[in-house]
Amino acid sequence: MANQTPSYDVVILGSGIAGSTLGAVLARSGPKVLLADAGTHPRFAVGESMIPHLVAWLQVLAERFDIPEFHALADANTINEKVSNTFGAKRHFGFMLHRPGEEPDPTEAHQFVIPDALTSASHLFRQDSDAYLFQVAVQHGCDTRQQWRVARVDFDDDGVTLTGTDERQVRARYLVDASGFRSPLADLFGLREQPARFQHHSRSLFTHMIGVRPFDDVVRAPAESRPPVRWHEGTMHHLFERGWFWIIPFDNHELSRNPLCSVGVTLDPRLYPKPEGLSPEGEFAQLVSQFPAVERQFEGARKVREWVSTGRLQYSSRKTVGQRWCLMSHAAGFLDPLYSRGMSNTFEIIHALVPRILDALADDDFNEERFRYVEELEQGLLDYNDILVNCSFISFSHFRLWDAVFRVWGSGNTPGSLRINNALRTFRADRDASVFDNLEKVPHTGLWWPDSDAFKLVLDGMAEACAQYESNAIDGDTAADRILRLVQESEAVSPEFGWKDVNRRFIYPDQRQMKDFLEWAAASPLPELSTIGRETLAALRKAGAAPAPEAGNR
Q1: Are 343 and 74 a contacting pair, CB within 8 Å?
Q2: pLDDT computed for residue 5 by the predictor
Q3: pLDDT tens-digit readout, 214-223
Q4: Which residue from 31, 191, 367, 373 has the least number of CB within 10 angstroms?
Q5: ∠ Cα 340 68 113 (to 5°)
Q6: Is the dihedral of CA 443, 449, 452, 456 positive or negative?
Q7: How far apart are CA 19 and CA 437, in angstroms?
Q8: Which residues on neighbouring strands pair with residue 208, listed in sequence order?
Q9: For residue range 121-178, what is the model confidence (pLDDT) as tens digits?
Q10: 239 CB burial (10 A radius; 0-12, 13-18, 19+)
């Protein structure tokens, strides 16, 4: 079949959220695309918590490539109205530290409320969101081949031939593997690093349940110690030494009719090896029973599907692009669900990959150097996330250290999202896509605020302090003090939201604080901040949403 003309420009393996989104964008842009999958829709998937970066990249894909259907997923109200009334709301990231056998100390809790100016995020009920995106891909021209498992992949100078277990063949000019961990391309080329290169280690147990109680109803905390937004209105993280539980409710939006809740636990197998002779459900119950408040949250809750128990979650690949192929997103590697970066990373990678595929098809030139940035992005996203998550797991045993890590993570999120939003705003005005090319010209590809040397210095200092604490070279208070000093002294960290104030554990940026942040950023000596501040303030004033600066304002 190698001498035959390819029947498709691009074949995408995997029709989950990554493959379907990529397929929709490519097909809308003109190429002939086949979306192939060993399974079918609807189906269960985890990775349900949206973040501002995710929404920003989804909006960029919608507008740059003219896929208006993507907008339905970018707002918690719209997704329940236009996709399915099964989605929860995510107003915040919530964290509470727990110790075995003890009630949690309400002062050892954090909440970061997502600024309204950034997004109205959702808890995605993935069987519905993924099926919707699959249908969008078909509507925009994708051919599909579901319940078709690839048995063999053969490359030659002119294309790639895929042969299914049913012996049917298909030929394409380019292949994207978006299938996840069991990647045919990773197997074919021996791409998996053994072991995964990451410092972080974790395994997981998860399912969907009914009857999980809102944490607000079971936690024993006085009113003055409770956060500004109910715990139930966001993604709840119950932290313990080298592990954390997630609680992602789908019933916390007024339009949702979904009573289910995504629950799971992620823990370090070096401290918590998988027990022999104990079912996943039994192990979860055993873990929950160690933490009284968490145990109360699950009283009377019942699973609605079988538990999944994994081995080590982390995997990585020595290479993610090649001649006529790409391992995309979770086919390339995975770290941990903490901080919910998986889907955001996926959409950013799609945005980088699509223009390069389109240019390669037009030029009939698939040299892997054309895709070098995609490789750098995929590896960078994983490596920087490894630093963050590894430091977080280390810090869970010491509250002050965790508090310091929380402030490093959170302080870079808003600037990182705003730079994407500002690029989209510029694109709306002049339709010049080169503004998105400029987003790639950064010194720290894959970092969630990739154009800030100052923020990278804080991250590096955090990693060094946590490593010294882990090796017992310093104690937890010393490590925390070092990181907090970096946070206090860094010109990249805003004082406006409270990141520099250790007495503020609940970060809730209101409209006034958002304006103060933007004015602080506009006056910053750091160009990556001053640009964000000036551009956003100018846009808000043009829209009548922010007053003009007063004389003497910083």
Answers
A1: no
A2: 72
A3: 999 999 999 9
A4: 367
A5: 30
A6: negative
A7: 23
A8: 262
A9: 999 999 999 999 999 999 999 999 999 999 999 999 999 999 999 999 999 999 999 9
A10: buried
Please tell me the distance from the alpha carbon of residue 487 to that of residue 480, in angstroms, as a whole number.
10
Contact 166, 148 (CB under 8 A): yes
**Distance between CA 413 and CA 402 in Å, rounded?**
17
Q: For residue 164, what are the β-bridge partners?
A: 150
Among residues 509, 513, 529, the alpha carbon closest in space to that of 521 is found at 529
Strands 325-327 and 169-177: parallel
CA distance readout (Å), 201 to 24, 88, 196, 390: 35, 29, 9, 8
CB atoms within 10 A of CB 190: 10
Question: Considering the entire predicted model, what is its pTM?
Answer: 0.96
Enumerate the H helices of 140-297 as residue ranges. 184-189, 280-288, 292-297
Pairing between strand 321-322 and 243-249? Answer: unpaired
Tell me which residue of 334, 520, 511, 539 sits closest to 411, measured CA to CA: 520
- For 498, residues 6+ apart whose C-beta sits below 8 A from its C-beta are 504, 507
Distance CA 533, CA 538 (A): 8
- Between CA 267 and CA 41 the distance in angstroms is 30
Q: Say what the pLDDT of residue 548 is.
A: 46
Residue 94, helix vs strand vs coil: strand
Check: CB of residue 223 under 8 Å from CB of residue 81. Answer: no
Cα gap 59→71, rounded to integer Å: 6
| Collapsed DSSP state (helix, strand, coil) of residue 248 | strand
Q: Exposed (0-12), middle (13-18) or buried (19+): which is 350, by Cβ within 10 Å?
A: buried
Q: How far is CA 213 from the centre of its chain?
A: 26
Spell 486-517 as b/e; 16+ CB within 10 A means b. Answer: bbeebebbbebbbbbeeeebbbbbeeebbbbb
- Looking at residue 2, its pLDDT comes to 57
Residue 62: other Cβ atoms inside 10 A: 20
Residues 516/517/518/520 CA torsion (nearest 10 deg): 80
The neighbour count for residue 361, using CB atoms within 10 Å, is 19
Q: Residues 366, 360: contact at Cβ < 8 Å?
A: yes
Residue among 60, 18, 91, 50 nearest 419 (CA): 60
Exposed / middle / buried, residue 317 (Cβ in 10 Å: 0-12, 13-18, 19+): buried
Contact 214, 232 (CB under 8 A): yes
| Residue 61 phi, psi dihedral angles, 5° rounding | -60, -40
Beta carbons within 10 angstroms of residue 105's beta carbon: 14
- Both tokens of 73, joined, read 């997923």
In sequence order, the β-bridge partners of residue 131 are none
Amino acid in the structure at residue 382 = L
Question: What is the predicted pLDDT for the residue at 144?
Answer: 97
- Which positions of the chain have pLDDT values less than 70? 1-4, 117-118, 545-554
Sign of CA dihedral 118, 345, 394, 222: positive
Which pLDDT score, from 0 to 100, does residue 141 have?
Answer: 97
Q: How far apart are CA 407 and CA 452, in angstroms?
A: 16
**Would you tell me how many other CB atoms lie within 10 Å of the CB of residue 477?**
12
CA-based nearest residue to 259, from 300, 308, 204, 306: 300
